[in-house]
């Protein structure tokens, strides 16, 4: 009798063990993304970031209950309120889209040192719990300069930059260097403008320029002005940078484009989520003096690309220049 009772007791204990919840099961990671103004549907940076999020959800079979998406109205106060809310609610990874979040991330990451933050398209937040995910756009601009120099029929190409952008003069110098590397005889004309670019486009086209690269992102006037010439005797194609110039994505303008330099926000979001899920980080040294960590995407890792929009495929010379950039053989691009 005693033996039968002991057997029954052991059977019950074993059954209870099988039915008990596994307290060692991994708790799902909570991940949040704070979009810039406009959120999804902007045809630009937010849509690209959302595409990376969607791929990560599908690839890693994430529950949407563990994902939180926020949209800012663009003010500093709103950005701080939203990101602090996410940190207080124990989201382990908070991804902020765009350099407009830099001050916010700097403040909130200091308040929540055990939370991992990532900021896309910025390289200024010096915190060890922040991944600055930036882009070596200079490589793309150099390659674009080379491509425009080779495809130009007139031997005259142009650059229109936003004078208010600190990167414009640097991009102009890099663009010119790439153009001359590909075609020493090419003429590069440039205009750095303040308020409007229409008259500058017309001047360049009147001077014989048939290819223009621009980082003007305030409006679509560069590409729309260029398009106005393409029904006449003079023809000019426009190239630019995505997702900054989101209007380049509109199908109506693509027939008036030659190429785009692309910053892969989607890849950055997808990879930082994968790193978090694997309990890893993306904290390479970007600036040892300033203490800035993260990852700078480039042509080699596919985070920066130059994509043809219209015209014949890039030739062997562009392929060689691209390979030289990827191998680090092209110097002084900063």
TrEMBL record:
Keyword terms of this UniProt record: Cell membrane, Lipoprotein, Membrane, Signal
Signal sequence coordinates: 1-25
Pfam families associated with the record: Bmp
Keyword Cell membrane: yes
Compartments (UniProt record): Cell membrane
Gene3D superfamilies documented for this protein: 3.40.50.2300
Protein origin, superkingdom: Bacteria
GO cellular component annotations of the record: plasma membrane
Residue ranges of every copy of the ABC transporter substrate-binding protein PnrA-like domain listed in the record: 35-270
Name of protein: Basic membrane protein A and related proteins
Source species: Candidatus Nanopelagicus hibericus
